[in-house]
């Protein structure tokens, strides 16, 4: 029997199957359900839940009369934020690559800063921040949900500007002369909550890449804190490192 990692059973089976089908040729048939249930030591319900996630993510296809076979997800797009020669946001860089970028604003409001956001922005706890939450798509397919937080007293126009197009960073430069000079980026892994899963068109509990960014000015003062939760099957994160001798 194949051993699965600790954690929710269907998630560990799905992850093992994901690695397995990645090594199989496109069009190859998955073994029948009874064989996989015996191999993983799980019920048919648990196995189907695991396979459902891979179908939703584009790794498998079910076909009546044929079975379940391997396919490949849609073309991957790099999630790129360049902090080498300039601070350039995702939408600007994706557009430069020729991709069709779409944005739906989900939340745009002034709220008391959550404790973690207040810490990142060096604000008093519960100081007002503008919260901007956007669903971003590439070539019509959902890619990630981006959450950005900015001090409300410093950037009040962010609460009312139309961000269905364009870059938040470019807006800050244009409207406020913002000195976007440095950025700290942290990447970790999360899982999709049901509401996120609906937005990203994936199964609830699917793994997500989480990219957290705090942008600072030349004096080291924090200006923007953001975190983006990405579908890993259609995204990858790219970093560039520049050594300047300073």
From TrEMBL:
Superkingdom of the organism of origin? Bacteria
**Entry-linked InterPro entries:** Bact_HTH_transcr_reg, Chorismate_lyase_/UTRA_dom_sf, Tscrpt_reg_HTH_GntR, UTRA, WH-like_DNA-bd_sf, WH_DNA-bd_sf
| Transcription recorded as keyword | yes
Entries under PROSITE patterns matching the protein: HTH_GNTR (PS50949)
Q: What is an example of a GO molecular function annotated in this UniProt entry?
A: DNA-binding transcription factor activity
- Renumbered to this chain, the signal peptide range is none
* Pfam families membership: GntR, UTRA
Q: What region holds the HTH gntR-type domain?
A: 7-73
UniProt keyword terms in alphabetical order: DNA-binding, Transcription, Transcription regulation
Which GO BP terms sit in this record?
negative regulation of DNA-templated transcription
Name of the protein this chain belongs to: GntR family transcriptional regulator
